[in-house]
Amino acid sequence: MAAESPTDRTASSAPSAASLTASLADERVDHRFKALPPDAEGLTVGALAAERRNLFTGGFTTPVLALSAESVAHNLDLLETYAERHGLAFA
Prior knowledge:
By secondary structure, the protein is mostly helical. The chain contains 3 helices and no strands. Helices cover about 35% and strands about 0% of the residues. The longest helix is centred in the last third of the chain and has 17 residues, at about 70-85. The two termini are about 25 Å apart.
């Protein structure tokens, strides 16, 4: 049986944001994670997030990408409106 390609996936078969977030929370911080404080090594992502360290004084180094959930949601709404208005569809 052939492997499913990303283009064969439907929205219903894609993992939910909640399940992705939950699985990330259980990951241990190691060499794969960039710009995190050195003392975070070995913690789970969930434990580090629960500490709510300050981005500027919590030991983070560059490059760091910080996103606002509200801004991302707003931008996605704008993109959806634009796409509908212009008859566009995104995979």
